[in-house]
Amino acid sequence: MVTATAAASGAAATDRFRTDKSPFDAVKDTPKQRVDALAREVLDAVHATIRKHRVTYDEYNALKAWLIQVGQDGEWPLFLDVWVEHVIEDVATDHRHGNKGSIEGPYYVPNAPERGAHAALPMRADEKGAPLVWEGAIVSTAGKPLAGKVELWHADADGYYSQYAPGLPEWNLRGSFSTGPDGKFTITTIRPAAYQIPTDGACGKLIAAAGWHAWRPAHLHVKVSAPGHELLTAQLYFPGDPHNGDDIASAVKPELMLDPKQQPDGSYRMMYNFVLDPVRS
Ligand code: MBD
Ligand code: FE
After folding, report:
1. pLDDT digits (tens, 9 = 90+) for 232-251
2. CA distance 151 to 221
3. Which of 71, 257, 273, 274 is most buried, by the most CB atoms less than 10 A from its CB?
C-alpha cells in the first residue's frame, strides 16, 4: 500500500492553489494604509511575544529553519488553513442569518463530476466504510426552496483525500449534486474517518514540539450555491467523535453537527438542510 507523505500532499495542495486562484489580483486595489496597518500590527504582535518570553537566538534560528521547511514541504496551505482560516471564515460570514459555515481547508477541487439531485458520490466498487444516505434541501432564509448545487468532498474510511493521497481514483468521494426547483437532494456516500493532518512535515514538527495532537474529527466538506445567494462553504460533523471538542483546525460549530441514525443493515440515514442568505445589494 502506498502511503501519503506530507511532502506529496503538501506539494499537491500548493500546486492546486497556484493554478486555481489569482490571489494578488483580488487585492490589487487595497489602500497602502490598510497594508501598512495589517503588516505593522502583525509584526508588533511578534515583537511583543519575543520581549514577553525573551526569545533567544537559538529559538530565532530554529524558527527561520522551520519557516523554510514549511515552504519546502509545500505546507503553507495546510498551516494557514489549520491555524488561521477559521477566524477569516468567522469574520467573512458573521452577517449571515442562514447556515453557519466553516473553513474550506486545503483539499477542495473545483469541477467535480455532476451527479444530479439524487445520486451517489463517485466511489470504488469496494469502498470501505458504513454507507450513509443523506436527505436534505437547499432553501433561502425566507424559506423558499432553491434550485442550486451541493458540492461534496470528503476523506475515505482511511482518512485520505483523492487527488492528494496516492493510489485513489481521481474523483473518488468528490461530486456535485444539482437540485431542481424543490431544492431537494439525496446523496449516498460512506462515513469518512477522522483525519490526522500529515505528521511527517513541518506542521507535524510544530505539533510534536508543542505537545499538540494532529487530529480533525470526521467531517464532510460542502460548498452550497444557488443563483442570487451567498456561497456557503461548510463542514458537517458526526456526534460522538472524540475530536469534536478539540479539532486541530478549530472548525467545529454546534450548528454543523449531523444526526445520523443507524439502520438495521448497519448503514446510516440522516437529514440536513442548507439555508442560504441572499446576496447583499
Ligand atoms: C483537512 O481535511 C481539513 O479539512 C483541514 C481544514 C485541514 C487539513 C485537512
Ligand atoms: Fe477535510
Report:
1. 999 999 999 999 999 999 99
2. 8
3. 274
CA neighbor of 89 nearest in space, from 233, 280, 245, 255: 233
Tell whether ligand 1 has an atom less than 6 A from the beta carbon of residue 81.
yes
Phi first, then psi, for residue 133 (nearest 5°) are -115, 125
Residue with cell 503588516: 39
Q: DSSP assignment of 106-123, as one string? A: TT--SSPPB--SEEEPP-
Q: How far apart are CA 180 and CA 1, in angstroms?
A: 41
Average pLDDT for 168-187:
98
pLDDT reading at 229 higher than 70: yes
Average pLDDT, the chain: 95
For the CA of 84, the nearest ligand: 1
Whether ligand 1 lies within 6 angstroms of the CB of 105 is answered as yes
Mutation pick for ligand 1 pocket among 102, 216, 247 (CB with most ligand atoms within 8 Å): 216
Residue pLDDT, tens place only, 251-279: 999 999 999 999 999 999 999 999 999 99
CA angle 113, 219, 196 (to 5 degrees): 110
Nearest ligand to the C-alpha atom of residue 252: 1
Q: What is the largest CA-CA distance in the chain?
A: 63
Dump the DSSP string for 195-248. EE--SSSHHHHHHHHHT---EE--EEEEEEE-TTB--EEEEEE-TT-TTTTS-T
